[in-house]
Amino acid sequence: MKIQAANRQTRGFTLIEIMVVVIILGVLAATIIPQFKGMTHDAKVSTAKSTIAELESAIERFNINYDRYPTTEEGLKALVEAPSSDDTKWRGPYIKLLRQDPWGLDYQYKCPGTHHKSGFDLWSRGGDQADGGEGDGADIVNWKG
Asked: Which of 4, 21, 48, 110 is most buried, by CB atoms within 10 Å?
């Protein structure tokens, strides 16, 4: 009789016990995962804002050397490679690497800008990957707060 009692103790978990654990894990996941989704978007926006600030600084250094901003045609590439028009003034590279935005698109640059008539506009198209947008799809720009 003692042998049978020992066998019952080593059988493991019952199906009901496993189902209870799975349900508890599902409830925890359902309450925690949505919070992380917002954090991911916020992190991407913060990264884009930081990169735009870095690019603005590099564009200003370019302006100091050239007495002008890169043209729209030269674009942000002028920060890593000398423009073909006049490379004697170029003191770059002004940035090590021209990165894409956190959504995998190139940063947009226009000079003269639509919003900064005597300067330049610099922006990321944001989560919707199109110009304009609101909420999570809003553009990250250098012309407003």
From this structure: 48
Phi and psi at 64, nearest 5°, equal -60, -40
State pLDDT tens for residues 66-117.
889 999 999 999 999 888 776 777 787 999 999 999 999 999 999 999 888 8
pTM (2 d.p.):
0.72
Q: Which domains occur in the chain, in start order?
A: 2-141 (3.30.700.10)
Contact 51, 96 (CB under 8 A): no
Q: Rounded to whole angstroms, how far apart are CA atoms 64 and 57?
A: 11
Which pairs from 51-55 meet CB under 8 Å and 24+ separation?
51/99, 51/101, 51/107, 51/124, 52/107, 52/122, 52/123, 52/124, 52/140, 52/141, 52/142, 54/95, 55/79, 55/95, 55/107, 55/122
CA distance 90 to 62: 8
Task: List the structure tokens of 108.
Answer: 């947009």
CA 77 to chain centre: 19
29: left (phi over 0), alpha (psi -120 to 50) or beta: alpha
